[in-house]
Amino acid sequence: MTFYYSSTVCKVDDKPILGNILPKMVSVFCSHVLWIALYLFGGGAYLHATTAIAVTTATSAYIGADSKVDPGGTMCKLVVNKRVAVGMSGQLADRATNFSAARSVATALAGSRGFKDAIDSVIRNVEPPLKRSMKWGFVNDPTTYAQEFQGKNALALLIVGIGERGQPQIVYVAWRTENGDIMRLPISRFGQNAFDAIGVYDAFIPYLSAHPEWKSIGAVDRIRKVLEIESAASPDMVGPPFSIIVSGAKGLRWIQRGPCETSPKHGEPKGPKAK
């Protein structure tokens, strides 16, 4: 069984939401609509969403994601190698062009050397098949493409790891689609003591305003809190078990796997996994 996702992503970047912890403003990305379906631009569709959040400390980069897939299953939403982890939201796969974002990302990470090379390799591997996927929809199912994709983000990624200078990094990469083509948005990069998110994020924004102490608790607890808030607010779209992983000086370490299982070949988690 293969799946595809499409999302409407909003960006809130006009407020210093981390107060005095960060010297500059931090972007928060949220999507209001995220679909999962059995066929690209057709077939039965199930309403579904995802929440993924990355947090950095002075020395480490963390990322966590929910795993809910309707109807009644779970899916690992993180792709990793020994030092880099990637969370994904948007068009993840289709049957028409055999596009798989997870496969493209896993291939990119398997052949990468260092964090910067991983980012460049992911972009090189993802862009051509993603473009074919969007082009196919625009030509063959223009109605669905117009409703679900036109003028929206086709795919968004959060890439976390330790940079070449030993600093934790969060990198946001996204592609917008117009008339069947894709355009990569400016890449956003965050260093120490930062956070960024993709997917459903609406319920957490007012929580953060009312609970500034969130930014002073441990990274894992911060991630769990966000995932719990979104699961409680949208239980039909976001839900446990959660997957959380940390990248530090000694490489990646799972805090909790959720449905993620490590592949012996590349180290990327397998999915989807049905309950």
Would you kindly provide a brief summary of this structure?
The chain is α+β, with helices and mostly antiparallel strands and 275 residues long. The protein has helices at 101-110, 114-140, 142-148, 204-210, 219-233, and strands spanning 4-12, 28-39, 42-47, 51-56, 61-65, 68-69, 73-74, 78-80, 85-90, 152-162, 168-178, 181-184, 188-190, 195-199, 243-248, 251-256, 273-274. α1 runs antiparallel to α2 (114-140) and α2 crosses α3.
Question: What's the end-to-end separation, in Å?
Answer: 14 Å
Shape: globular
The percent range for helix content is 10-25%
Multimeric state: single chain
Report the strand count: 17
Describe this structure in words.
The chain is an alpha+beta fold. The protein is 24% helix and 36% strand. It is built from five helices and 17 strands. It has helices spanning 101-110, 114-140, 142-148, 204-210, 219-233; strands spanning 4-12, 28-39, 42-47, 51-56, 61-65, 68-69, 73-74, 78-80, 85-90, 152-162, 168-178, 181-184, 188-190, 195-199, 243-248, 251-256, 273-274. The strands form four sheets. Strands 8, 9, 10, 11, 12 and 13 form a six-stranded antiparallel β-sheet that branches. Strands 14-4-5-15-16 form a five-stranded antiparallel β-sheet, with helices on one face. The protein has a three-stranded antiparallel β-sheet with strand order 1-2-3, with no helix packed on it. A hairpin with a 2-residue loop joins strand 2 and strand 3 (42-47). Helix 1 (101-110) packs antiparallel against helix 2 (114-140) and helix 2 (114-140) packs across helix 3. It is globular, with a radius of gyration of 17 Å. 47% of the residues are buried.
